[in-house]
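Hello forum,

I keep getting stuck at the same step: I have a sequence, I want structure tokens, and every attempt I make locally crashes halfway through. Rather than fight my setup again tonight, could one of you with a working pipeline run this one for me? It's a single chain of 223 residues.
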Amino acid sequence: MKGRMVFVVAALSLVGAYALLFREGAIPAAAAGDHLPLTVASAATSTVLAAEAEFVGSAKCKKCHLAEHKSWEATRHGKAFDTLKPGNASEAKTKHKLDPAKDYTKDATCVACHTVGFGKPGGYQMPADEEAAKKMKALENVGCENCHGAGGNYINLHEEIMKSKRKYKMEEMYAAGSLKQEAAICLTCHSEKSPTVDKTVPFDYEKMKEKGVHEHTPLKQKE
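Reply #2:
Ran it on my machine without issues. Output:
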């Protein structure tokens, strides 16, 4: 927490210093652009938001993205947590020299890639009892935020856009903490650290980004 506060203060101080230099004429408008301080502020704010954002769970996304959520539930991502349970995915576990009878839902190494935001603010925490397990249920599986980023900040903007029915650009969502879809996100888990990944076959992002994920419907309000 202390480190995060230092980061926030440093980021905001940078924005303030830049704005002061601009106002005093040290940074000419012609060279910097009329809205450069705002751009810098937006970039710094985006970084701060990303650092502070909490995970909210895939159910929060369902009310606006019903089709995507429904199709996601049928994917391997949507059932990822169940594969960690004893007796499930036995053939795959045996193939990769894992114990089919073991309960991998207690193994932090496995849980990290089979839940939403493991160990992070608002994310999945290893439950200590049955009551805690019920609360963590909504954060099981590879959910929306594993790919799109913690929604604690951008979900409010998203809801405002949906309610007002106004147009928006993805840059606005990115500035609020939503992640751009790229290979690095997938490689967080689809890498050699996973015991079920074939190390002789590199992860093909261009091929896999349309395979095994939720269906994609047109975003009517996106410009």
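The chain has 13 helices and no strands. If your local run keeps crashing, start a new thread with the error log.
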